[in-house]
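Review box. Two proteins, two foldings.
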Amino acid sequence: MSSLAAKQPLLTEGPIARTLLMFALPILGSTVLQSLNGSVNAMWIGHYLGEAALTAVSNANLILFLLLGAVFGLSMACTILIGQSLGARNMLEAKRVVGTGVTFFVSVSVVVAIAGFFTTPLMLNALNTPADAQAFAVPYLRIIFVAVPSMFFYNFLMMTLRGAGDSRTPFVFMALSVVLDIVFNPLLIFGVGPFPRLGIAGSATSTLIAQTFALFALLFTLYRRKHFLRLTRAELGYLKPDMEILRSLVFKGLPMGLQMIVISSSAMIMIHMVNNYGSKTTAAYGAATQLWAYVQMPAMAIGAAVSSMAAQNVGASLWDRVSRITKMGVLYNFLLSGLLIGVIYLFNHAALGLFLPNDAQALTLAQHLNGIAVWSFMFFGVTFVLFGVVRSTGAVIPPLVILFISMWLIRPPFALALAPQLGADSIWWSFPLGSLASMLMAMGYYKWGGWRRARMLATPIAKAGQQPPGEAAVAAPQASTTAQGVPASAE
């Protein structure tokens, strides 16, 4: 396996500060591009197809978010397994993860696509989607379900590459997908030139085209480069699922996906409480959350980056380096998130005015609540970074419990209890309290918890040359075959 170390730059080597920053920036770029894409699509639909169409997309996106939240967790489990395998220089195990992941994600995505396509009206009824919006939502969501296999499989490949230490290639193809989606959106909505006029279905069709094209372009590129994790014809046997890896993907991945659901469901509780104070307060809160989404992006990107870096170093048993990755991740969170928060405080009025140009009362409310809450996202950023490190070993339940306590058992009860005294301010102050509580619990678990003893697999991943018992006879020829495909660069 020495050829792997020699030819493929690993996250177990080099200066931590620079490596982490260069690895995190493309992840941050991908997150920004996704948000930009959603905003542009919403603009076309809202401005030209009306409020009912925009309501339809909002309802459909709630369903899609739940699906992608679960896939995020499963894909992150794959990232960690591949990172640990490559950190241990065990190409055989990395190939097993890839093969099992391909079969699993393709199978699940096809089942979800078929089931979702035929149950779309039932799901929209369950959300109490308004009747006028359902006319738009049904065709939109059905086409989105057709795109689910491409979405799921692309997400799997993106997280696989990040586990292998490559965040630039996923960023390039995410940019390709976003550009295609933005270009095709108006062409298919309005029927420009040779394109058919599809209305809201055109927006979903542009997503389908963009995701599918980007997926096949990425696959073509990986095979043309002879990427070391590609499955060659002789290695198609790896597509038969390894049950231990499959169990890890499900039982380690689902709790990570549930973290996203805890966050989104908590946000639904908070907006329900905000709605009680009238439309002006809701509009102010909506404008502020638009900014908050961007404030959280650096911390989320750094959290994903430290998870991939730490996983490789855990696989290599470089625990001192894992500790230094944690410290550098927390530092970068304060620098990047703090910079954004400082800019928002400096230009609070102008930034919120982008979303509330003609409502002075709502704008004043938004400035007030932003002043109370926005600084606390630095605390939440520390939580993201620490969670990224501890889950790199397979410790996934404690972060889920910590999030549930802070976002369900602390934030809403505090806001409700102090509402008679503070009014809407009780909601705004619940954000710093919840963020501080989650950070302190995460710090406590990082320092005193048993995350270093956690395992992704029941059988620990063996380092190169130390195959698990009973596999020595077959591992050697397979390992030598896979090592031959390692390219000079995976970028």
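Next protein.
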Amino acid sequence: MDGQVTLLEGATLTVNCTYSATRYPTLFWYVQYPGEGPELLLKAMKANKGNNKGFEAAYNTEITSFHLEKASVQESDSAVYYCALSGTLTETAGGTEYKL
């Protein structure tokens, strides 16, 4: 977890997600906007990419990462972002709140 991060509108957003797993898990990014419940933003299975609403993430099995990126953030992107995984016996992931 990176904690709270503040960015200016138009800046590039990168939220790092690394994981530890015994196999190739399905990876997810969830977003939770203020006053709302979490919603699925991206989903990817072994070595592919996900994109939605200008956000994208590449599933990198070599360095076990699924970093979330957006080229130009807006105030409406202010939320808590969670990286999650499933389909493994041993799993870890985390989330970060970004104030934009």
